[in-house]
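Weekly sync, protein design subgroup
Attendees: M.S., D.O., the rotation student, P.L. (late)

Item 1: inverse folding check
M.S. brought a backbone from last month's batch and wanted to see whether the design step gives back something sensible before we order anything. D.O. pointed out we never logged the input encoding, so this time it goes straight into the notes. Structure tokens as presented (417 positions):
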């Protein structure tokens, strides 16, 4: 948005215009009266003011400002580069160009002087450029992603002036750049969980499906067989429809349910440390599950930024499933107050029989315990991981109850059996 006129319309601008008219008239009068010194002085003043108005009118025309990150996704603690680029695509040079950009306060910019901003969680960075005609200047700044989240760089303010500083021009840039910082993914032993069987002794009955990579033979066709399973050579040889037969393989499913509430009542607020630890644990379990061959799904009783009411990613082994999960957790927005047991009860009906269900929470209610016991009776392998609170129930066959808490030597997982 070009707001130079709005910014500089006023008494000062009117005075400069009046001086320009007066200087021009005085110069013409001096020429008529044959007063060379007065004429030269008047025209010099008029020329200086004209130059100022030209810079005000055209100073920011064909000036392009942009940001670029070394990468658009990162993990906490990762170092990145931010490149600021200014391009002057015209003959008129810019003696100086001030850029006032707004940076998210949760990112660390070592070595930069940042000023406070009236906007929450925002700081202001100011820098000066000098550009010749058709010149582009790039500057790179190192910064670190310190915590999970979704960060937007949007508003930047450009200001310039003529060499004499008489008339200023300003413009606001609203081009948006986005940075997504994933939650920390750590080895499960970092949470006190064993590397093998981190969810305890779980042996759920998992459904068997045909593995198309393990051909076993043929069998007579039965109604309902898909056309692509028909073995045409065997059909031609026997004179009867024959279908391909494959070995059956287990397809384990891991459903992760994350509770974004850290207190029983939403009006009590939020414990950010517990929430971030729960999110990191959830991300780490997702990475472990996909590596172990699970179909992993994610369910959260909170929306992602700009998304629907709940985060709901169906179980999958897609190569990009981990990225989808990490991105959803990065964009998670808490403070919903919706009970996790309601989400577990609703979504578990759509899970395959025998799926492993993991609930990560800092709030354990009697309703949640009843829901977990009910799902255990239905054939699901259950795990309750509580962050900083006691599960209030003992581990049972097919149901593990573990407390994740900070100990003197790091994070511990305690079995409540």
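Designed sequence read out in the meeting:
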């Amino acid at each position: 948005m070009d707001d130079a006129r709005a910014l500089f319309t006023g008494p000062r601008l009117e005075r400069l215009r009046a001086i320009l008219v007066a200087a021009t008239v005085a110069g013409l009068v001096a020429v008529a009266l044959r007063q060379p010194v007065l004429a030269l002085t008047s025209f010099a003043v008029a020329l200086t003011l004209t130059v100022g108005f030209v810079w005000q009118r055209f100073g920011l025309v064909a000036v392009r400002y942009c940001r670029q990150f070394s990468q658009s996704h990162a993990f906490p603690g990762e170092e990145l580069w931010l490149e600021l680029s200014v391009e002057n695509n015209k003959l008129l040079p810019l003696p100086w160009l001030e850029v006032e950009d707004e940076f998210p306060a949760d990112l660390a910019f070592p070595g930069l002087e940042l000023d406070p901003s009236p906007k929450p969680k925002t700081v202001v960075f100011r820098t000066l450029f000098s550009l010749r005609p058709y010149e582009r200047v790039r500057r790179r700044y190192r910064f670190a992603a310190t915590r999970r989240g979704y960060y937007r760089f949007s508003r930047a303010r450009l200001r310039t002036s003529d060499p004499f500083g008489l008339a200023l021009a300003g413009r606001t840039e609203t081009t948006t750049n986005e940075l997504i910082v994933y939650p920390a993914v750590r080895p499960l032993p970092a949470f006190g969980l064993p590397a093998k069987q981190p969810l305890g002794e779980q042996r759920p009955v998992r459904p068997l499906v045909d593995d198309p990579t393990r051909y076993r033979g043929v069998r007579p066709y039965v109604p309902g067989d898909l056309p692509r399973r028909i073995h045409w050579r065997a059909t031609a040889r026997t004179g009867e429809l024959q279908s391909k037969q494959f070995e059956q393989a287990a397809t384990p499913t891991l459903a992760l349910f994350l509770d974004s509430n850290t207190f029983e009542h939403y009006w009590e607020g939020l414990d950010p440390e517990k929430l971030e630890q729960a999110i990191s644990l959830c991300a780490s379990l997702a990475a472990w599950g996909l590596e172990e061959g699970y179909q992993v799904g994610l369910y959260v009783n909170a929306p992602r930024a700009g998304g629907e009411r709940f985060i709901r990613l169906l179980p999958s082994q897609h190569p990009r499933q981990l990225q989808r999960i990490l991105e959803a957790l990065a964009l998670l927005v808490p403070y919903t107050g919706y009970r996790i047991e309601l989400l577990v009860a609703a979504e578990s009906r759509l899970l395959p029989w025998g799926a492993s269900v993991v609930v990560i929470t800092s709030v354990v209610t009697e309703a949640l315990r009843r829901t977990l016991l009910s799902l255990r009776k239905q054939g699901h392998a259950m795990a309750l991981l509580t962050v900083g609170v006691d599960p209030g129930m003992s581990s049972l066959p097919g149901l593990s109850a573990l407390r994740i808490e900070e100990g003197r030597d790091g994070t511990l997982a305690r079995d409540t059996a």
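Discussion: The first helix runs from residue 4 to 8. Residues 43 and 109 are 49 Å apart (CA to CA).
Action: P.L. to compare against the previous round before Friday.
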